[in-house]
Amino acid sequence: MSIPLNHLLIFTSLLFLTGLYGALTRRNAVGILIAIEIMLNAVNINFVAFTSSLKNTSPELGQVFAIFVIVLAATTAAVGLAIVVAIYRNQKTIYTDEIDLLKW
Amino acid sequence: MNAVDSLFFIRSEIFLAAVIFVVLILDFFIQQKRWLGWLSVLSILIAFFLSPSFYPDSGLFFNYYTLDPFGFFFKTIAYLTIGLTLLASLAYEKIPQKQAGEFYVLLLTMALLLTFMGGATNLLMIFLTIESVSLTSYLLTGFQKFDKRSSEASLKYVLFGAVSSAVMLFGMSLLFGASGTIELSQIGELLKSSASIPQNVLTQTGGANTHGMILMGMLFLMAGIGFKISMVPFHMWAPDVYQGAPTPVTAFLTVAPKALGVAVMARVLFFAFPDLVHKWAFLMTWISIATMTIGNVIAISQSDIKRLLAYSSIAQAGYILAGLATPGELGLQATLIYIAAYLLTNLGAFFTVIAIERNLESNELEAYNGLSVRNPLLALVLTIFLLSLAGIPPLAGFIGKIYIFSSAIKAHSIPLALSIALNSAVAAYYYFNVVKAMYLAPPKVKEPLTNPFPIKLAIGTMLFGTFLIGLWPSLIIQAVVKSLANFPIF
Fold this sequence. Notes:
Chain A is mostly helical.
């Protein structure tokens, strides 16, 4: 007895929205990056769930896609953290509402 | 086509990849970094002439990379932008000498990635190329790492960009779930064959919701690509990033990723969703109107030239999208012609800004007062580029505007045509504000501006191109018709 696809889709939608809410409301830049990772994990679960329930496609397709997503999520985190370090050196803060040199 | 046979067709990419490593290694030994810059420019030129003269029947690498005239058009655009940006950055002293080699390497990598982006026809390649182009742009934006504005711009870019690519990926997962494939053209066939197919595809959802899933997937995917094009409402990052980034990077970012984003958008819409054309054409019409209006209206109140041109480039993205909003042969031709004209004029304008910035150390509009006295030629050239952006004949921008306008008229899209006409008038106002400052305001100091050879060469090339397309538009029109030959237009 496998988990019904509907349940998985509801779960991933909630997970995605949790991540989106976090990305929109957190002040801390590192917090936003973590929220983005949550969104990407929702995508991964989606791909794997769809692969296991699709009849007419090769089973690797979605899983390989998920692995690519994991790899690029890691590189995004690396680049993002490097930039956060650079901004901390320059402005001594990583709270996004205090970083406001550029506006209008 | 299998991987070994495919190698012949990507020899220019292989060459470029080799050059990237050579430049990276030479960076250790060569103290005069400008030679690395010249080497990079030269290798872009060689790579362009290495590209194969005929096209394969099927996709390369088991259909993961499509080589067609459409992709070649955008490859030309990518190489042209990168080559000239390299030239302009040779004259830009604000990039630390120590890191200049890495800067050239990143730009060359960008050329390679953009080429692949133009040939991406399945979801995995679209995701990979868009994401890696974005990652490289974040790094280039924050390249002046001790500059507060530069690092702030890159932080904003990385946060917005990562969220939007997560949204795009969620859309891709929905599309994959609804269709069971990641090939764009197969998604299109599945939609075309009938509504009953998706029922067999999914074992558990019962098929009732797959149409909704495809629509949601399309919207999410468009949002993710739209972020790269800076279409409203995903344009918030653009002014900040364009103002904070080093000016050569800004010049490049306003053109190449935007043009390639439009290429991917066109492929997605025309390959995967030809059956939903009424839905996305309607959406695109209003997005395009909103993009040009918001870009132009906010640009009026700007006092920093880079920020002004940033908002102007948002508005220009609106004009480019107008070609996609009126789907059909003329609409696509208009898009491509406008992109070519926009490339020449916008790059030219930004290069002129670089030439002025390195003398004045300022980008404020007030610093431009009386520029016509201090360097008449530079003032004249900037005026020409601004006129071309506003769409005045006989310059390149005019040809683009004519095509966009006539495709809107032909599709009977009256709101779009009206909005293009009104926006052109608004845009002319703030472009002429710059011209007014240069010619009518008195200068504070009288010392003339001088510039080195590379930047003069870059500006000269753009000026030549602007006049060439403006005076002999048949050149670009024929090239565009040829590059759309194999493109499936319904």
